[in-house]
């Protein structure tokens, strides 16, 4: 069965890149609605933006969506990951600013709010995108691949010169609440040396140690350090799930990312949907539905991610 939130979820905070405050509401939606954003602060033009891969307008440091009239919302990946990770296929996300609040830099507070509100089943079957043959993209030292698998798996590798991060690799089957327990609390990260450069081009204006991990020459500047020893690669997996959710349906396939990010995942979805016979839309049977990321999650699972 498809799912939506049982009641409206409301959160507020500043944007990581814009630094501007925003109020965000995740509202229940009917079956087959999908995920849409509505810029409620814009009333003189179409303010609805579909949460789909072909609406992505920018992937520098975050994922930004735009509609045909140029109405945008950015940094959507963490809330999209929370929706995918809790099994919500239908929702209207109302927001009164240009950027989704960064919260603590992870999906944790979105997940907590969704589970607190509850998830409601709807009388409609779950459809999923099953990968039939391998597709890939590559540029510079980045690789992203989607290949056949009965369930969604994410295999991610990163390699950073700063010894506080270094090389990290992790693979997870995204079933039975794995996202909530293993990834949802993992925060975005950056190098201290990059902060001023980002601000110079209008990014990371709202960034700080309360919403990002900052490392500098082998040292984690956050007083409490990492939440997990491999928090950085786990956050990249979180981002990947959020960006894959822009496919418009859950994916049955294995995603492999090597030094990948928002740009690579979006390019990969474009490659997938432009490749003949690379995928098919299927109606999930009960066994497949039970292996999707949002199945078998309870509020108690949150404690396991602490």
Q: In words, what does this structure look like?
A:
By secondary structure, this protein is an alpha+beta fold. The protein has two domains: 3-121, 2-Layer Sandwich (Ribosomal Protein S5, domain 2), CATH 3.30.230; 127-305, lpxc deacetylase, domain 1 (2-Layer Sandwich), CATH 3.30.1700. The protein is 21% helix and 30% strand. The protein contains seven helices and 21 strands. It has helices at 77-85, 108-117, 178-183, 192-200, 231-244, 262-274, 286-289, and strands at 3-5, 9-14, 21-28, 35-39, 48-50, 56-58, 64-66, 72-73, 91-95, 119-121, 127-131, 135-139, 142-147, 153-159, 167-173, 189-191, 213-216, 219-220, 251-252, 254-258, 279-283. Strands 2-3-9-4-5 form a five-stranded mixed beta sheet. The chain has a five-stranded mixed beta sheet with strand order 12-13-20-14-15, covered by helices on one side. It has a three-stranded antiparallel beta sheet with strand order 6-7-8, with no helix packed on it. A hairpin with a 2-residue loop joins β12 (135-139) and β13 (142-147). α1 (77-85) crosses α2 (108-117). The relative contact order is 0.21.
